[in-house]
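Retro notes, item 3 of 5
We never archived the inputs for the NAP complex last cycle. Fixing that now. Sequence and ligand:
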Amino acid sequence: MHVYGLVGNPVGHSLSPPMHEAAYETLGIDARYVTFEPEPSALADAIAGADALGIDGLNVTIPFKQDVLELVDPDPLADRIGAVNTIAFGDTSGGDGEHVGDTTPKGYNTDAAGVTRAFDRHDVHLDGSNAVVVGAGGAGRAAAFALADAGASVHVANRTAAKAADLATDIPGATGGGLDSLDRIRDATVLVNATSVGMEAPDETPVPAEYLHGDLAVLDAVYTPIETRLLREAADAGAVTIDGAWMLLLQGVEAFELWTGRDAPVEAMNAALRDRLTA
Ligand code: NAP
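Structure as it came back at the time:
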């Protein structure tokens, strides 16, 4: 049996187990997806222990995405973002997902692919687009690198302007500013909310409605609630709207495909995720 899992603290309400187990069931893969909640001081032991036990892969979430970087061999994108959310143990280069060899675990950032694949799924072309990312934390960094790599021109707006400016210096051609630069959305075609504003707060929005317009495609990383005030107001303005469950789903799809070398059963994973989100 293959074992995959999630390391974070807390992970009690994670939607990853039902999403990944739906994939195993659909494809007849003998595997389980388990959650682990180590103390922060035990992270290195936890990763080494998972490797020693033959665990095939781990997702990594708050608060460990940055700290785990030094415990793995990050791919160039994860290295540039400065965060890892997916670890593959052993050498899976044979493509069958088998755990062979005793190599340093590989680290990836599939949040970035979650962003670009979410826009792809909605037929939004990123190459040549003019994008604004609101937020410069973990999700904001992943979104900004992903959009820039896909050919978008990126502006980052963040409450703490210095963090946006720092992020922008890491991305050739990008710019950064405070929330007073949100008016750049008026000329943008792509908008990502990568702040936590609106999470469990259906009346809050990170973006004044007056900046939203019909030429925008808006991805909200927040997925509780699924329909945020930002997405409601973006739909009212005639924008394409993409909820945070798409990003969550497609980062998981990307991780599944890295681990197993197989195409993920996206619809089954989506159904399992949305069942839980609307339950
Ligand atoms: P994080 O690293 O803690 O960053 C939080 C961001 O939100 C920072 O940019 C912060 O600005 C900003 N922020 C917080 N409160 C704010 C406020 N009242 N007004 C304006 N900005 C505010 O968190 P994260 O990991 O990036 O996660 C951000 C959101 O994305 C969360 O809701 C998370 O659930 C979601 N997310 C979704 C997915 C997905 O797959 N859908 C994946 C990852 C994250 P400062 O820098 O000024 O503090």
